[in-house]
Structures
1.
Amino acid sequence: MIHRLEAIVLFYKPYFLWSMAVTILIIIFSPYILTCITTKLLLTIFIWYYTNETSSKRKLVFYKNLGISTRELFLAVFLIDTLISITVLLIIKAFI
Amino acid sequence: MIIELDNVELYFNDKRVLNGVYLKLETGKVVGLLGRNGSGKSCLLQILFGALQPKYKLIRIDGQAIQKPLYYLKIISYLPQLHFTPNHLKIKTLFYLLQLDWEDFTNHFENFSTYYHMKLNNLSGGERRVIETYAVLKQKGKIVLLDEPFSNIAPLYIEKIKSLITSEKSQKAILITDHYYKDVIDICDTLYLLNNGCTKQIKHSKELETYNYLNVDTI
């Protein structure tokens, strides 16, 4: 189980900085949890679409070999990303 | 364990790729699958793995129909035709995630012993292929699918991979497809030819000429 979770984090890693940049924009323009969740959902859908339409699609076999379906992978990425973003949002809001 | 793939029908738009496929894998046996370019070999492996959904298919394990993708049940591992490991992954991370034994690997492939801390995209295509093939062969799943494991690798490594396949087959059912037909014939216990979307079991290598897979008098 831990290996599968680590593999999902590995998949999420290249998107982390981009996602943080989006989070900062959310904090500046609309610092609400609902905005954050909606944006992250759209971002995850975009990553899913990008992965499916490019050669990155074949890399999904690596995760399938670990028993992680594409749906599970993107759902987990969405949850991790949203959790991190909401935490950052709440921390920054507490100081403003 | 006996795995049967039956009644496969696969279409891409209106083009029929597979029709009337039957394959039987068995623990302790290596099954070879040959076929021309574009005959649907890779699609067939993807269907069995669960990564490709055809119009119809029936997968039975020990006589029982299985609905879920096999990868989801964690009983299968699959080496696709092209690199499938993340590019920036370190070899040591790969071995950790897939729970592989580095010492065992370097016992088979001594030349790789200094590569432990390297990233996969810093290796040559062939070296990366060797690592990926080893990783798939050593997974805990009882079914192994290998799509062109011998392509682009040195003859010395081909022999080592063949001996690895032979040693792993006692606990696993292995399906292998490659254009290096001599190597496939060499290690397989059962041979199928995929021709016109259908599988035909090949009892004698000469049949490969009859079905125009090989030129006459090649064997």
2.
Amino acid sequence: MSQDTQLRIISALVEHKPGVLFRITNLIRRKSFNIESIAVGPAETPGCARMTFTMFSDYNRFDQVLKNIDRLIDVRSVSPLEERSATIRELALIKFSPGFPAMRPEIMNYIETFRGNIVDVSPDTLTVEVSGDPDKINAFIKLAGNFGLKEVARTGAVALSREIVPSESAAKW
Amino acid sequence: MKIQTLGKMSGAQALIETLQREGVEVVFGLPGGANIPIYDVLYDYQNLGYTPPDYRGIRHILVRHEQSAAHMADGFARVSGKAGVCIATSGPGATNLMTGLATAYMDSSPVVAITGQVPSFVIGSDAFQETDVIGMATSVTKYTFQPLRVREIPYAIKAAFYLAVARRPQPVLVDIPKDVQQGEDDVEFPDHIDFPNYQPLPDPDPTIIKTIARTMLGAQRPIILAGGGVKIANAYHELQALAELIVAPVATSFMGKGAFPENHPLALGCMGMHGSERTNKIIPECDVLFAIGSRFSDRTTGKMEKFAPNTKVIHIDADRAEIGKNYKAPVVSLVADAKKALQALIGEVQVELMGQHREAWVKRVQEVMVMAGTEFDGNGSRLSGAETVKMIRRFIPSKAIVTTEVGQHQMWCEQHFQVIEPGTFFSSGGLGTMGFGFPAALGAKVARPEVPVIDIAGDGSFRMTENSLATSVEEQIPVTVIILNNSMLGMVAQWQRFFYNRRYSGVQLGRSPDFVKLAQAYGAEGVRVDTIPELEAAVNRAIRSPVTTVIDVPISPEENVLPMLPPGAGIREMIVG
């Protein structure tokens, strides 16, 4: 992999019909990429869906994938998004199984710090919802490893471009 | 959008009616359980033999294997510039098409494939002869349709014809479940379909054209690299006009072979793995390389890092995804139709052309290109493959269409068969499909029955689709097949000779079959020749014969295609002997 390999984001506005996701993922597979995350849902235009993909790539190969997606018949528009110039959010559900009750207050503490919500509780488990930048989710999951992390489900990043691009020094989240 | 309604009809009728409206006169196919309704309608439309001018019919050409149907449609498309149509049934019929579709996809040829599918209500149940054709074909087509209602058929077919030829031509597949072929409905025929996501290519941007013109006129030592895109865009004359106007020598990729007359004083011939050594030598000397309709394939450039490192590259292509794919950093690039781009450039350089003198460069090119007497390493009693190919050029008219199979004979054609007239040379360059040449020759002959069509073949390749002899005889499509027969998978043997210490593994084909008897068994003519005069007589007879002729030319199994650029080598590092 080249020097400029990094997490890159694709946002595509596509026809909302069978086979479109297959065509795009098939194309990405052909270029030997692993899709880091993928999120699909109806977009603002009726009959259209927005797909957000993230993948690790250098610039050249990423540019190739973009151009190839752009020429697909079912793709209305596609654009690359950069972390700096886009709002990126992801939602994760994390289930804890704390080994002993004393852990619970500490978990609660972290949940508050990460502005998470408890969405399900049982005598042995605790399920938490956390949303934010994918890095924030990564950080929370890493911490959760110390407190009986049991299961993780992530939506994958969704992103929209920012209308006003913040300067380099601005805080990330 | 104007719509015409013809009242109730079946899906199969709607399909054939739409084909008629698209101007389709011939389809290549083979029936099976899941497309019988289509064949039932063809029964009414069919005419055997030729099509009188006012007859509204579709000629169906029955193949003996669906791969050949796709290659025939491909050959027809490459020669006519119109989409070629092939028809197959579900399951094995459709999977047999795939090699042909992949071939057309790699070489940017507009093939429309129509496959029958099991009834829609059993799709997904692993029904008899069910295959996920859409899933299989997605990687080798531009688009696929699966109409699930009768009313969707005219739209799907019309869209398929539009998409197949729009921008960069590529195959499109329409998969029609049997119940949709049989069902009846009020069918409407749109006369126009708009694809907002897939508009035709815009006219070349005048600002970029100006920049390109300036870069080319400023060049001291320009070379034009013409790819297959020039042939697809039918921009032969424009390319020649531009080259002559700015006095730039023209090299071609293998796919571009024949885009520029190879007997022209500015012709450099083919570059690349089996290109001319002289051409490969001079490419890195140019200061501006004007590439049009070429994707800089590895077979054309050799190792990219060593390919013209000090050259400014201008890249024009119909497909935006080709810009920056193999050649990373062109100084100027333009996404445009090759013909329109060349026309615009001709206009632009005519305005600016003043005091262009490139005498030193032209002299240098002519020095390098000066034809040394070619030596052929024929082995005593046998003809040389290279020499045979060179002689074939003398024995057939310049308007004759030549196709090839894949292997040594193909590369001897690249090196020794001079293509002179536009639209007379076609080969499977991208996918390298053995078995392409013969059915493609039949497709070419159907498109242009007035011209002799010759498939230059190897004995290995010809066997892959030899059963098309039956089609050529029964459907009266006479072509000439010249087999350079070394009883070997010669190109693989050559690699084993050069790079695997002569360990010949799996390449000996032996003496069977007897191609003369094989041809005769099909009702074709067969003849074996051992000398050049015999070859001349046989070719002369064959191109005038009302029936297909197979000319078997035994050659030495040890003959190499030289020069050769070894895999991974830079463009100047050829093996010459």
